[in-house]
Amino acid sequence: MSEHTIQMDKPIGETRLDRRVQDVIGKGVARHEGPLKVSGRATYAYENLAGDGKNVAYGFIVTSTIGAGKIKRIDAVAALGKAGVLHVVTDSDGPRASADPGDKKPTAINGQITHYGQPVALVVAESFETARDAAKLVTVEYEPTEGTYALEDAQDKAFDPGQGVMPSIVKKGDFDKGFAAAEIKFDQTYTTTSQSHSAMEPHACVAEWNGDELTLYGCYQLVSTNVGQLAAALGIDKSHIRMVNPYIGGGFGGKLGIGPESVFAAKAAKVVGRPVKLALTRQQVYQDTSRRTDTIQRIRIGCDRNGVINAISHDTLCGNTPGDTVFEPAGISTVFLYDGENRLITHRLAEVNVVLASAMRAPGEAVGMLALENAMDELAEQLGIDPIELRKRNEPKVDPQDGKPFSSRMLVECMEEGAKRFGWADRSKVPGARREGEWLIGTGMAAASRKNLLQKASAKVELRPDGSATIETDMTDIGTGTYTILSQIAAEMLGLPLDKVAVTLGDSDLPQAPGSGGSWGANSSGSSVYAACEGIIEKIAAKLGVEPAGLTLKDGTVIADNKQTALTELLAGEPITVTGTFKPGDAFKGTHQASYGAHFCEVAVNAVTGETRVRRLMTVAAAGRILNEKTATSQSYGGQIFGIGATLTEELVVDPRTGLIVNHDLAEYHVPVNADVPQLEVVFLDERDHAASPLASKGIGELALSGVGAAISNAIHNATGIRLRDYPMTLDKVLAGWAAGKQAA
Amino acid sequence: MRPFDYTRATAPQEAAAMAAAGATKFIAGGTNLLDLMKLQVETPEKLVDVTRLPMKDIVAEGDGLKIGALVPNSDLAADERVRRDYPVLSRALLAGASGQLRNKATTGGNLLQRTRCYYFYETSARCNKREPGSGCDAIGGFNRIHAILGTSDACIATHPSDMAVAMRALDAEIETLTPDGATKRHPIADFHRLPGDTPNVETVLSPGELITAVHLPAPLGGTQIYRKVRDRASYAFALVSIAAVVTMDAGKIGTVRLAFGGVAHKPWRNEAVEAALAGETPSAALFDKAADILLAEAKGFGENDFKIPLARRTLAAVLAEATGVSL
């Protein structure tokens, strides 16, 4: 077996993916694990070791009933006395929540209660039911301390968290001076609430030891990172852990870090000498894994009467549990989205006794653009300039922060195409002007941007003597289509029918990929498959004594020098196996890379009740090459729906007296249901970004979420005349807006 | 969930007798009870399964209808006679839960749903309904979904049913069977209780008393509306809901029935509101007067203050729709 590495030091020109001889790349191919999932044949984490005589034991986590304090004593005598109870794990090294993806390991309990509902112990029993019942028999004695549960109450003690996924402070020029001198000064504050990922599959695992070797069947997004975190939490070397993780029932960032279930299950399985299964209840998912922080964001923009920005600032306050210093990079898009000489983007963090705040889909943009793009709409109205025109007037030619060229940027094209398709020109510029019966109708738009991220990735591709190919990598598919797009890349490169390519994912024994997060997965792991295929093509060329560029591969044959040979014949019983590795390089450093888009929304707001219904929602996006139109569209739909939730319904409520997450189930944490979602429209503009990756693609998974909620809130303003700055915009806030006399209807 | 004994009853009388003593609960659809048992909000020692009992039919009864206690919500909503003669009931049922839940949930069980108060559901919080005397964390806590009418210092929870609100407007009667073999009929007005000092006691049912049927009196005709205001378009409990049955007589309001959900510990009805409307010419001012009567004693608890203006606005819109007045 050999290796082939591509380091992205300069843009890669035309490739086999552009020539599309096999013509499978980009096609809207259905996810090929789909039938397995809908027929129950895809084995999810909790379903492993079922009914095969493995003598599995079951765990149930005991959680704290206070929000802050010390654990004085844990009394498990009653629980242990119950028939069928095998063991109670009470060690203080257990995790208090999930790990942040950047952590070496999850933060240990260490005798402390840092948030309400925190894990404190694990009961292991012969059955799930016994474990759950016995968990209620474990009594914990606390020494409570006064906790801080509301971000507003903690803001006076906020601090600069330093470097995160971006620097906490980014500045250029002199914002204060520029803002003071500006003809028009815009200054508003926006708030967003805590949110929960609420993936359909709760965090679950099965831990099985064989001597000192642990197999962990899990549901994590970042296999190699998570193996490392689990090893560190258990105090063993990661070479002793195999993680098997082929199907994941949604992640959205909630499964980026190792969860308490796996650490507890592994500890318990070691003690009881049996495999241990453990799933968090829905309530525990809300309380014990992670959330998106609430934010208080101030946007200041100084511009002239024509809307040309001279000074722009975005200050974000967010919260996290004591000791967890990850902050929500809400200002990430404000760094580069609009021009302006004087810039100041800051982030501050305050300690609150609420479960870990970590990455949730489009960390930064998802809530930061709710503020920025609402502000741009507000500013446009104040100036009497069309919102699209205002954005165009501030379109930078290069990255306004550091002057780097954009690798590609089609924001203006997205806005123009969207305006045309949506009928933006017919929009009433006067709020509250359109009414249909009880319903006030309005439209709004917002820009979208999402930083493009790339990571080192490897994959093994084998071209087999029978003319089929296999791809193996520890990359994950969290429902996004990884299996399918990797097979499309290999099929296009090697000239194989799609059904000749098999993909194995999510096993830590396989070559290492960066997993699914930050919209980097498809590009990073896809590029490693591309690299492996390039290596295979070189070997085929060598067999034929020609240059690789002179080869055409199609339908299982290779064409060179006007001669067509079947791959089966060429291989003559010997497979070609190459491990491809992709590394980001100077091409990434030398350009500013992001995906762009524009959202257009029509809402109806009930003039009686203040209920808002989204009637139309369109996203036009440019994210480089689209690898699979169907899965990319589906991901974009998901982003749009996430935005509907963030803007209209989703709010993780923390009781400010105790820290209890009040609405910790799907009945009361309101993710949008089908009836909240209209027919969605997603349009991709044709774009190739040859500096972004060998695939000429950029991230798509989070783009449609970035900014979409602002299009909805701007539409609410256009419908009602009420400007809401406190998300989510539930009906009580609309009613309060009317009561405050801002009624246009 | 605590371990429990399970028995399947073969006759109503047997079921009632089985449940007469101890911490026993009937189980039918289980759409609410099982969730609560998993959380140990409910900890029955015995479940009596009533799903095999002959209480599954909807039959004509004089001018009215007798609905078996086991009729699923979806069947009841789809019944031709209900759709034709009691459309407010059909609409209320379809406004509740989800298709899957309605297929499983029964008529009797729907009446006995427990509140969705967050603190009732969280066993580590204080709740007088779950644990009498422990206190109420909803008062002073997050009480967005809580009651504005008929509350007490002990409890501000609401009854979550949509179906029961429509039945309240229709003056349904609930037929029961007691362990000693007596058949009782409870007017729905008296069936659910206000919280008072004993919010744990939610209905007039005595131990072992089994709901066997719901009787609907003769159809009222008129315009029938069920309007439910909620935080998302489906699968959310009512913030405010109104069941309205209104007839018109020569430009004036004839008879009017109004029941309210999401505002109280029981389906709320105030006959004084109806009396103020009957015989009057509909107008915005009249509707406002009706709302004044309805909300005279309304009290918000902070997060749910908005329900007071919301109820007023929704009432006006429902009355306007029912009477053909444009506001």
Describe what is shown at a glance.
The complex is a heterodimer of chains A (745) and B (327). With 745 residues, chain A is an alpha+beta fold.
Shape of chain B: globular
- Rg calc of chain A: 27 Å
Number of strands of chain B: 11
Major sheet of chain A, described briefly?
7 strands, mixed
Number of strands of chain A: 28
Chain pair with largest interface: A-B, 38 and 36 residues
Structural class given helices, strands, pairing of chain A? Answer: alpha+beta
Would you give an account of this structure?
The complex is a heterodimer of chains A (745) and B (327). Chain A is α+β, with helices and mostly antiparallel strands and 745 residues long. Chain A is built from 19 helices and 28 strands. A 7-stranded mixed β-sheet of chain A has the order 4-6-2-13-10-11-12, with helices on both faces. Helices cover 26% and strands 25% of the residues of chain A. The mean pLDDT of chain A is 97. Chain A has 3 domains: 2-30 and 455-589, Aldehyde Oxidoreductase, domain 4, CATH 3.30.365.10; 45-145 and 197-288, Aldehyde Oxidoreductase, domain 4; 295-452 and 593-739, 2-Layer Sandwich (Aldehyde Oxidoreductase, domain 4), CATH 3.30.365. Chain B has 327 residues and is an alpha+beta fold. Helices cover 29% and strands 20% of the residues of chain B. Chain B contains 13 helices and 11 strands. Chain B has helices spanning 12-18, 33-38, 73-78, 80-85, 87-94, 99-104, 107-111, 118-121, 163-169, 188-191, 271-277, 284-295, 307-323, and strands at 5-8, 24-27, 46-49, 58-61, 64-68, 173-177, 183-187, 210-216, 223-229, 240-249, 252-261. Chain B starts with a strand and ends with a helix. The chains are: A alpha+beta (745), B alpha+beta (327). At the A-B interface, helix 4 and helix 19 of A face helix 8 and helix 13 of B.
